[in-house]
């Protein structure tokens, strides 16, 4: 048997980065070969084992290119700006780039595309099996119901999350729009405040809650006259996202360059 695929984790010092490191170390199907932090971070140059108690022998670096050169996959939950840089470097290394970063603008998403001509990109607003099943259900229900049913996506996260709506909420909104045969960009409604007037028919609304240590909760509400349908997913363990990301990194090893999502990984 050949050597197990080597994985590099970016944003290694963050909560998600540390969870990803532990998931790779715990896997019997992959190796942790690198941990990347931003330039000047005090973890740079230190042994990961001394910092976290796992990953002994892996020296944390702020040189992403050097780390990616010895990897078969990169798992990246950072910022849109950092992810764009990492996408180019992953393409140079021909490494599968698993992107869990959220908060991209349309222009930034467009800028990710060139790297996918040279390497596999797996990007998803949420890496969990449950959420991706919820996405499929949302699309199916939206297909079945007409504009007399209002659609609202309600999401809740911890008080340190910096973007809203969440990437998962937008993914659910896109699924609802696809089910209705419309574009989310033309029907998205969020941030209501003050005298907003009546709800626009056919709109897909978003509400964001931030508080405490909420890992992630998402409801898709279909509200009709006299009845409501609520589809819900509640995450209680951040590890579900890390395990899904590792699964995506392994899935991408024998795939042709291109852009994929977790629906592809899970065969949904």
UniProtKB/TrEMBL annotation:
Coiled coil: none annotated. The keyword NAD applies. NADP(+) binds at residue 38. Keywords: Amino-acid biosynthesis, Cytoplasm, Diaminopimelate biosynthesis, Lysine biosynthesis, NAD, NADP, Oxidoreductase. The keyword Cytoplasm applies. Residues 130-266 form the Dihydrodipicolinate reductase C-terminal domain. InterPro entries: DapB_C, DapB_N, DapB_N_CS, DHDPR_bac, NAD(P)-bd_dom_sf. It is an enzyme of class 1 (oxidoreductase). Residues 7-127 form the Dihydrodipicolinate reductase N-terminal domain. It is found in: Cytoplasm. Its EC number is 1.17.1.8. (S)-2,3,4,5-tetrahydrodipicolinate binds at residues 158, 167-168. SUPFAM superfamilies: Glyceraldehyde-3-phosphate dehydrogenase-like, C-terminal domain (SSF55347), NAD(P)-binding Rossmann-fold domains (SSF51735). GO terms for molecular function: 4-hydroxy-tetrahydrodipicolinate reductase. It comes from the Bacteria. It catalyses: (S)-2,3,4,5-tetrahydrodipicolinate + NAD(+) + H2O = (2S,4S)-4-hydroxy-2,3,4,5-tetrahydrodipicolinate + NADH + H(+); (S)-2,3,4,5-tetrahydrodipicolinate + NADP(+) + H2O = (2S,4S)-4-hydroxy-2,3,4,5-tetrahydrodipicolinate + NADPH + H(+). Pathway: Amino-acid biosynthesis; L-lysine biosynthesis via DAP pathway; (S)-tetrahydrodipicolinate from L-aspartate: step 4/4. NAD(+) binds at residues 11-16, 100-102, 124-127. Belongs to the DapB family. HAMAP family: DapB. Homotetramer. Catalyzes the conversion of 4-hydroxy-tetrahydrodipicolinate (HTPA) to tetrahydrodipicolinate. This is 4-hydroxy-tetrahydrodipicolinate reductase. It comes from Thioclava litoralis.
């Amino acid at each position: 048997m050949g050597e197990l695929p080597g994985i590099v984790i970016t944003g290694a010092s963050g909560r998600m980065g540390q969870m990803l490191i532990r998931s790779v170390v715990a896997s019997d199907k992959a190796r942790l070969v690198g941990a990347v932090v931003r330039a000047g971070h005090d973890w740079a140059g230190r042994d990961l084992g001394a910092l976290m108690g796992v990953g002994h022998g892996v020296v944390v670096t702020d040189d992403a290119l050097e780390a990616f050169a010895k990897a078969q996959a990169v798992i990246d939950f950072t910022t849109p700006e950092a992810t764009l840089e990492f996408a180019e470097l992953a393409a140079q290394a021909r490494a599968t780039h698993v992107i869990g970063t959220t908060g991209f603008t349309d222009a930034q998403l467009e800028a990710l595309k060139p790297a996918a001509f040279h390497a596999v990109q797996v990007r998803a607003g949420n890496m969990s099996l449950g959420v991706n099943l919820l996405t499929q259900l949302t699309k199916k229900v939206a297909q079945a119901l007409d504009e007399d049913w209002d659609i609202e996506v309600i999401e809740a996260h911890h008080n340190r999350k910096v973007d809203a709506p969440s990437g998962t909420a937008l993914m659910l909104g896109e699924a609802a729009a696809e089910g209705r045969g419309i574009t989310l960009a033309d029907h998205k409604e969020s941030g209501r405040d003050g005298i907003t007037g009546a709800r626009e028919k056919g709109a897909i609304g978003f509400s964001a809650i931030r508080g405490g240590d909420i890992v992630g909760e998402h409801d898709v509400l279909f509200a009709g006259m006299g009845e409501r349908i609520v589809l819900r997913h509640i995450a209680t363990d951040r590890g579900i996202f890390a395990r899904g990301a590792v699964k995506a990194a392994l899935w991408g090893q024998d795939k042709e360059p291109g852009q994929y999502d977790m629906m592809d990984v899970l065969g949904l």
